[in-house]
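Structural prep section.
Before we set up the soaks we want a predicted structure of the protein with iron/sulfur cluster in place, mainly to decide which crystallisation condition to try first. Input record follows.
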Amino acid sequence: MATIYIDNLPHQVKDGQNLLQACLGLGLNLPYFCWHPAMHSVGACRQCAVKVFRDEKDTRGQIVMSCMTPVKDGMRLSVDDTQASDFRRRIIELLMVGHPHDCPVCDEGGECHLQDMTVMTGHDYRRYRFNKRTFVNQDMGPFVNHEMNRCIQCYRCVRYYCDYAGGRDFGVQGWHNTVYFGRFAAGVLESEFSGNLVEICPTGVFTDKTQREHYTRKLDLSNAPSICANCSVGCNTIPGERYGKIRRVHNRYHGQVNRYFLCDRGRYGYEFTNAPTRPTQVRFSARGAGVMGASSTTGVQPVASADNLPGTAVPGLSETAIAYVRNWAKSASMVGIGSPRASLESNFALRQLVGKDRFFSGLEASEQPLVERIVQVFHDGPVASASLWEVDHADAVLVLGEDLTNTAPMVALAVRQASMRGPMARVLKDLKVERWNDAAIRQAIQEQRGPIFIATPQATKLDEIAQATHRAAPADIARFAAAVTHEIDSAAPAVELDSPAADLARTVAQALLHAQQPMVIAGTSLRSPELIDAAAALTAALVNKARPARLHFVVSQCNTMGAAMLGGKETSGAIDMLKSGQADTLVVLENDLYRLMPAADADALLSAARQVVVLDCIDTPTLGRADVVLPAASVFESDGTFVNNEGRAQRFYQVFRPGGHIRESWRWLAAGCSPTPEGTAADHRCKIASDAKNASDAKNIITLDTITAAMIAEFPALAAVADIAPPADFRMHSQRLPRQHHRYSGRTAMTANVSVDEPQAPCDCDSSLAFSMEGYRGGEAAPSALITRYWSPGWNSVQALTRFQQEIGGPLRGGDPGRRLLEPPTTGATAKPSFGAAVPVTDNPATPGKLLILPAWHIYGSEPLSMGTPGVAQQAPHPYIALSATDAAGLRLSDGAQATLQFEAQSPSPQAMTLTVRVYTELPAGVAMVPAGLPGMPYLSLPDRGRVAACMGGPA
Ligand code: SF4
Ligand code: SF4
Ligand code: FES
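Run finished without errors. Recording the tokens verbatim:
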């Protein structure tokens, strides 16, 4: 620690910072633009000037840029000095000469860093009376809007897009007073992280195009803390709602997970919740109506409802709808299929409703054993799961099988940062440069990269930062990993590899052994159990050699780990149960059977049930086959818990009370367990309701807390879920925490189309957040899990985040939210690893034309929720088959040709598919890839062997 004197007052600050960090950390108002906590200092904008004095006697001082000046013990500086303040005011005036002053029509208005800094410096009068420079804006695709006239040349965008995120299609062009920040030619931004420009840019040059489509002022958004549901990483988000629609998704800082950024799938993949096609009413088909005893018997009918206006629904369920659910639950003999995209609570409520022997996980059959194995690996130790921040800080990384940009985009962004760690450590040591001095570090590092190794079947976008790549089929990648393990620990079985692969295995082993923070990343995307075991054995070998190795597994969906921890059976078992008459009703929770199994199997499952009840928030083929549809709340309309790929349980909150019959799935399902008007049945189905009755009041309201308590009682391994957020009765000084900004406008007009009386805000019995602008606004920090926005007096933009952190770039005040559920045992964790005797057998694809078909995943297209956003759907590829150059030549197929793919072993075998050929030059011979989860692609149980042939009559 160092003592510095700011305007003659002593302050204790951490060494190794610059003065700007120190001042912001102390809560002082010091304006800046080009410094960013993730990208550090370059000293470009000259906005952060302070005066530094030699000693107590120095009264003249010297103006310096605080972001470029290191903290030194005993240092004296002034933020309030008149010359320094005047310098800052004049810099803003200079920047504003080129700025169009168009705040009233700017999408950034109200949350603008430039507005805040202009007010902070006291610049309030425009003296410049001449024409301003103007630029031509670019169409940058569906996500980011471009308005270059607002630029203040801080260079943050280009530093983020190119230096931090590795973008190549964007840069700074021009000279003198006409520098231009944009693409080299108009067109869709290529980076999967382009949306962060919206939060990076301190003005309105880059704004959110999806919000523009249904614009609302930022101060009029209702916000709640949420978790991205679009992949397994579990990035923290703040969605904003107005008039019953989600208008945007912003980043929510989490020191161990996503920190300052989101990927574009997470930021923009929210429109599914606004889709006009989504189910909003309880519906039942003619068959469902008969079974349920409803009056209508023709077609699919909605149940009449009065509570279908956003924000006006009273707590509790529509009595009409709930009567159906109770009748159905009372009479039916059910099996339930859970979901990796539904919350822990919803899955648990389904399990309680149907009984544990009739609960099926809803995980894809080939993924379930892999995820169970991952849970076991972290449970048994000795290797601990790595957080995203730990991946970011690794100095040697081996990626096994995962195309991270497409399967877990933010992990790819973290690996990009990891590639700088090794060279950066050398620069910090040799040149004695501080970490914050980014300009100097990048100058010294140039193109140097650390030891990043990527072993995948196909070329990936991350290859450009890799020291070496290895192309092989999954089992051969596992063999390669086993060879690395043998190099690290000769007790592990030896593997015979050809010479380049064997040499590379030695190089990788040395890099991992000599790293300060070695990291191995693998996952389930190739559906290879050998890869999971090989990654676990490799890291165990490192730990056994006293290396602090970590393991990061990627799984498919936002709650895949949570679904596995609830222990459901494999989904295919439901067919036998229905066919054998052990059950007559199938309940499908937020899942599409046609993505889980071959269409023929899904048809058989749905046909075997006397009635099919589906709860979902998106329209799916399974929903189309439902006898009863219960409209489920989306992640934005629910409270619940997801467990991310790291094993971290994280809470998300309802942003707004949805209209129609939409309810959280757990609320529907728990209502099915609820005591009937005639009395409480004493079977397992009533467990949740009984707990609720004891824990709440005579009204028998079922809340998230009661569901969570019941879940923890049944699953002690989930006990930490109780600690991830305050309970619903938590209050700050007897007050709730508001979802709405205190400057929220138009409250009394919100429902004027219905009634001019202002309705009472709905009561939230599941959390301590209020659906209004009323609540605690004092100076005490709210619990980090309940932060609804970053705001502080004078700081309306996201830069206010510094006021919520314990230190700049550190954890949030009170600790980052969420708890890890999977930690290795503290005793016996260093036990010698057992490598097993078996080395994976090579995939050895021998027969020409009979190829090993692997799934390929796409950031845009493979994930069903985000496909509800038109800009995501627009960027999804069309179905294709990727062939190696050798196989394509052997089959006389070229890029763009049509080929047929026929499986031999798939049961039931799908029709031969006609697909467009892509030739991947780096794909190993004998291996082909087809996209998974795309619309237009049937479910395929992969990997499998298939025959590819030129399409008869098609172009070769
Ligand atoms: S576009 Fe925005 S981030 Fe880029 S230099 Fe201009 S003001 Fe800075
Ligand atoms: S990496 Fe995954 S969790 Fe994070 S924002 Fe992207 S899609 Fe969402
Ligand atoms: S923030 Fe210091 S020069 Fe820009």
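Observations: The chain has a mean pLDDT of 90.
Flagged for discussion at group meeting.
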